[in-house]
Write a structure and sequence with these properties.
The chain is mostly helical. It folds into two domains: 162 residues, no CATH class; 447 residues, no CATH class. Helix content is 75%, strand content 1%. It contains 32 helices and two strands. A two-stranded parallel ribbon has the order 1-2. The two termini are 44 Å apart. 50% of the residues are buried.
């Protein structure tokens, strides 16, 4: 055989192997489960006659099966992959059983009176096992262990002394509540994930596939790239805008951080600070309407209020948070003389909008539908269809049908990290409700705080941050809403303000050491020490820790009250955060010593108080001190030439 013929045979063999791998990937169990799940969710909207229990059971079943199938995909050996794939298929059976018998369970069976048969015991216990295992594999040990503690309390509670004892016990009641009803695994958290969250995750995946994410990043660089600290400001703007669609801090870091963090490092930001900026900005994306993450939808359900109320209430606090971040990175850039006016984006805002500006239409459609009170799942599905239509009509964003299939698969894979925490949280919520633990915890909180609202807020903040340690935001919010919110409402706090208070701290746990998941994700890109990045992100996020308290002091920030209340609260907070930001960064026209930083911190915090006289005095002090520092700055500092860096814009998608 000639060398040419041998090479031809080798190439043919390699091509056959590649084709085989392609078809193997196409028929991968995880891909098939994900695709079927997405199609099922679409059917739920198109055919609203499917009963609630059926929808929730299938949602949980697909989440567990897909989680295990994704683990199987990464298995090291073929035999292990086969076993795990078979286990993934079997894990779907308990939920399929509930779905097939949903009519009987909801209309004929009487909970607490009808007996639980052997088959129910076996499938219920098996579902608990596979749910805990899937949660441990995907989410880590923390949430699974936390849920296990509540399950343990359910069974040992009758034997505990004092107020911690309860009478609601027994395996039959446990299976009856957690497996055969809408009050346990298939409770409110899973209901929100099924009927609302999935469709927004699907919209975000489709929007990203058609180039919406790249449009946001390019537009952010075009708008801020020529300003001082341009890459850092672009990271803040792009992460905020993209986070408003994705609703996930870690996913936001990994999607925008791969572009923004290297650019920040290139112009001179320290790696830990670059990672911290991205982590803080990406975490704040969960605070930005219209999506805001899964916890916002659960908040609307708990409060029994339209979702547009939550969206409108979130606008001003989100703006304030990002204004504070922009102030701090601007001061940091000026302090380190990181003038990036030579950072010229490859595209101007006009060019970016010309290429992908049509993708703004689905976003505007989504916002309009939500604000006008349209069912949110229908609004998200319509916006997804709008992305496909407008993206296909424009040559620059046209994609093949396989790209749409990929987006549906990605949507299902991302939803796993929401559906599993919601299912585990449902177990905890049921235990709290049926054992009376929530009432006992409320009494304990009020007793510890002595009935004082300020002390109760501090205790709630600390408890929310602890609950959020290593947990997804959704789970942290649900736990805090069930355990902590009743104590605050008992002492007279407004329910919307209370839930926003714990919502913020559940989110900010992503940048709170010792377990700051968003900061750790950013550190993996910046190559900085995770602990240092976490502490830097925490410092940058301090204004975010103050905003919940300001919402209590200034309800106008949540659009409670008159427009004048909102304007006054916004002015107070922005001016106060300027003083706090100067203190945190330690620079204003020149480096500040410890006394100046303490001065700006005290005056900045005092500005946040609602009293008009104190605000006027503090603003005058900040203005006077700023003018003095600028006027007396050393000539050498004034004449210092900032370091100019030329950086490349983020790479563009292929046309």
């Amino acid at each position: 055989m000639s060398n040419a013929a041998a090479r031809h045979d080798t190439d043919a063999t390699e091509a056959s192997a590649l084709a085989f791998r392609h078809w193997t990937d196409l028929f991968d169990a995880a891909v098939l489960i994900a695709l079927i799940w997405s199609l099922s969710q679409i059917v739920f909207v198109l055919w609203p006659g499917i009963d609630t229990l059926t929808q929730r059971a299938l949602h949980v079943g697909f989440a567990i099966a897909l989680a295990i199938a994704m683990v199987a995909r990464a298995a090291s050996s073929r035999g292990r992959r086969v076993l795990l794939t078979a286990f993934a298929v079997l894990s779907f059976l308990p939920c399929a059983y509930v779905a097939m018998n949903a009519g009987f369970l909801m209309s004929e069976r009487v909970q607490g009176l009808d007996p639980v048969d052997l088959f129910d015991y076996l499938l219920g216990l098996f579902l608990l096992v596979v749910l805990f295992e899937a949660g441990r594999r995907v989410l880590g040990l923390g949430l699974a262990a936390f849920t296990a503690l509540f399950v343990l309390y359910f069974f040992v509670g009758p034997y505990l002394p004092g107020i911690m004892a309860h009478r609601y016990s027994g395996l039959e009641r446990f299976i009856d509540t957690e497996f055969l009803s809408l009050q346990g695994i298939f409770g409110v958290p899973v209901g929100v994930s099924t009927s609302t969250v999935y469709y927004f995750i699907m919209f975000a995946a489709i929007f990203d596939v058609y180039g919406g994410g790249r449009m946001i990043i390019e537009l952010a660089f075009a708008l801020t790239g020529r300003t001082v600290g341009g890459p850092a400001k672009a990271a803040i703007v792009s992460s905020g805008l993209l986070g408003s669609v994705s609703g996930s801090a870690v996913a936001n870091v990994m999607s925008t951080g791969i572009f923004t963090i290297p650019l920040m490092k290139r112009v001179g930001y320290a790696p830990r600070f670059a990672g911290a900026v991205e982590a803080a900005a990406s975490t704040g994306g969960q605070l930005v309407p219209p999506v805001m993450g899964a916890a916002a939808f659960i908040m609307a359900d708990y409060l029994q209020t339209p979702y547009q109320t939550i969206v409108l209430a979130a606008i001003v606090p989100a703006v304030v948070y990002y204004v504070a971040l922009l102030i701090m990175v601007d001061l940091k850039a000026r302090a380190e003389q990181l003038d990036t006016t030579d950072t010229i984006p490859a595209r101007t805002p006009r060019a970016t909008l010309r290429a992908r500006g049509h993708l703004i239409i689905p976003l505007l459609w989504l916002v309009d539908r939500i604000v006008t009170g349209y069912p949110v799942q229908d609004a998200a599905l319509e916006a997804s269809v709008a992305v496909v239509v407008v993206g296909t009509l424009h040559p620059a964003t046209r994609r093949s049908p396989s790209a749409l299939v990929e987006a549906l698969v990605v949507a299902a894979e991302r939803t796993v990290t929401v559906a599993l925490p919601c299912a585990l949280a449902g177990i905890v919520v049921a235990v709290i409700a049926f054992t009376g633990l929530g009432t006992k915890f409320t009494g304990l909180m009020i007793w510890l705080a002595g009935g004082n609202l300020a002390m109760l807020l501090v205790l709630t903040m600390l408890a929310s941050l602890v609950l959020g340690t290593g947990m997804p935001t959704t789970s942290a919010y649900i736990m805090a809403a069930v355990l902590l919110a009743p104590a605050l409402t008992t002492v007279g706090a407004d329910p919307l303000t209370v839930h926003f208070f714990i919502f913020y701290f559940a989110i900010l746990s992503m940048v709170t050491p010792p377990v700051a998941l968003a900061a750790y994700a950013a550190a993996s890109i910046s190559r900085a020490a995770p602990a240092e990045t976490g502490w830097s992100a925490f410092v940058l996020s301090i204004p975010g820790f103050l905003i919940p308290y300001m919402a209590v002091v200034h309800p106008g920030l949540l659009l409670i009250g008159s427009p004048l209340d909102t304007a006054w609260g916004l002015l107070n907070v922005v001016l106060g955060f300027f003083g706090v930001s100067v203190a945190l960064i330690g620079w204003l026209s020149r480096p500040l010593n410890a006394l100046w930083r303490i001065f700006f911190m005290i005056v900045g915090l005092a500005t946040l108080l609602p009293d008009a006289a104190s605000t006027v005095i503090c603003v005058a002090l900040i203005a006077g001190a700023s003018a003095w520092l600028w006027w007396t700055v050393a000539p050498a500092v004034t004449r210092a030439t900032p370091r100019r860096q030329t950086v490349q814009s983020p790479p563009r998608d292929p046309p």
